[in-house]
Amino acid sequence: MLHEYLSRLASEYVFERAKSFSGSDFGNFVRHDIAIEAKKRLLFLPYELEVKASVGQSRWASVPWLAFFDPLVTDTATRGYYVVYLINAQTEEVVLSLNQGTTEVYREFGENDKGRSILARRAVDITERIPEFFERFDSGSINLGSTEKLPAGYVAGHAFGRVYQADAIDPNQFYEDLEMMLAAYKALVDRGGRTPVDTMMEESGSTDILETRSYVLSRRIERAKNVRLRVLERRGIKCEGCGLAPVEHYRYEGPIKNVPLDVHHAKPIRELSEGETRRYKIPDDFLVLCPTCHRVIHKQEDVADIEKLKNSISFFHKKIVG
């Protein structure tokens, strides 16, 4: 069971990290066994998340972790925001946290008080975006038993969560909290994450908050790397509006993922409601469009009406021989 594995991690980490990092059986237990157990929990939940666990790279980390990533936002603990279990090995505590990528912020603002203040401010933004979930968790500061810069960033970036003593975890409470935290994470993504409302409205061209959130979610889906490549591979690398084919018209020879075409999420925005358990179906919910056709179709009332787009096009691609 996941709670038992995390309890073992918190209880034994101090002893295990005194051993060699290379080839550690305990390290493999964390990276593989704990991650697999966490993935099993997701089988019973309506979320499409990636799971990773870490005890460090090339050396033992001060704070090992197990994280859940929404691919629409991030697939790494260094950027974006995600749900994570952080381990305080000194006090043998397991900390459930809605947290943020510290490395991303440190690179931009510095590994200092300024960087951590940015993380703390964004943590407040998160709590204000999903207040009904914030109220159901503990909002106090967390202690990770380390003064190193990365753990200090985790402390600053913590929005809310729960702390469990390794030898006294209540399984019912533990799994109830996990499900509630993952629901909070999904709601945060659906509502635009940490992006300010005025910025989202400017991007969407709408003053309606629900329509704005749906638009932003749709754009996130289009830009997600796990979506783009799969759509291009299955629908082909040719604009479904005007017929622009980069291989033929530009003599493009690079990898498919870098082809100068956009992936358009064609599901009508009005049908993208918060709380859906399945946000998209590949390739049915998508179109492949050139950047110009992509901009034009978003101006239509029905962003899925490819025939209307085609009928509005009055040019054709022709190779000019000089």
Structural features, described:
Strands 1-2-3-4-5 form a 5-stranded antiparallel β-sheet. A two-stranded antiparallel ribbon has the order 6-7. By secondary structure, the protein is an alpha+beta fold. The protein has 2 domains: 2-190, Metal Transport, Frataxin, Chain A, CATH 3.30.920; 220-312, no CATH class. The protein contains 13 helices and 7 strands. Helix 1 (2-16) packs antiparallel against helix 2, helix 3 (102-109) crosses helix 4 and helix 8 crosses helix 9. A hairpin with a 4-residue loop joins strand 3 and strand 4.
Alpha plus pi helix count: 13
> Helicity, in percent?
40-55%
- The total count of strands amounts to 7
Shape: elongated
CATH class of the largest domain: Alpha Beta
Count of folded domains: 2
Ranges where pLDDT stays below 50 over 5 or more residues in a row are none
- Return the structural class: alpha+beta
**Kindly, what is the distance between the CA atoms of the first and last residues, rounded to a whole number of angstroms?**
70 Å
Major sheet: size, sense and barrel closure?
5 strands, antiparallel
Task: Give me a quick take on this structure.
By secondary structure, the chain is an alpha+beta fold. 45% of the residues lie in helices and 12% in strands.
Name a few traits of the molecule:
single chain, 322 residues, alpha+beta, Metal Transport, Frataxin, Chain A, 2 domains, two-stranded antiparallel sheet, 13 helices, elongated
SSE map:
Elements: H1 2-16, H2 25-42, E1 50-54, E2 65-69, E3 81-88, E4 93-100, H3 102-109, H4 113-129, H5 131-134, H6 149-157, E5 160-165, H7 171-190, H8 197-204, H9 209-223, H10 225-235, H11 246-250, E6 262-265, E7 286-289, H12 291-297, H13 306-312
Antiparallel strand pairs: 1-2, 2-3, 3-4, 4-5, 6-7
Helix pairs in contact: 1-2, 3-4, 4-6, 8-9
